[in-house]
Amino acid sequence: MQSRGRPDVASSRDAFAAVESALERSHLAQAEELLSGLEDPAAPHALVLSGKLHLLRDDAPATIRILSNQHFADRRLQMQRALLLGAAHSRVGDFDAADEYFDAAEEIAKHDPETLAEIAYRRGRRYGYAGDVDRARRQLAAASQAESAASKLHAMQLEGFIYGLERRYAEQAGVLARMLEQIDPDDERYAMEAAFATFTLAVLGRELHLPHVIPIVERQLQACKWPAELNVPRFQALKALGWTYALHGDYFTAFRYLKKSMAYAPSPAWQAISALDRAYLARCLNEERWSCQELSEAEDLAEAVDWRSTRNEERVALLLLAELSAATDAGRAAEYMAMFRDLGDFHVPQLQVFHDDRLQAQAGYSAGVVQLALGNAKSGAKLMRESFAVYDAIGYDWRAGRCALRLFEATGEEQFLRIAGEKLRYYPKSWLADDLRRHTSGKHAQPVLPPMQQRVFEELCKGLSTAQIAANLGRSEYTIKNHIKLIFKAFGVKSRAALIAQVVKHKE
Question: Is the pTM of this model over 0.70?
Answer without folding.
Answer: yes
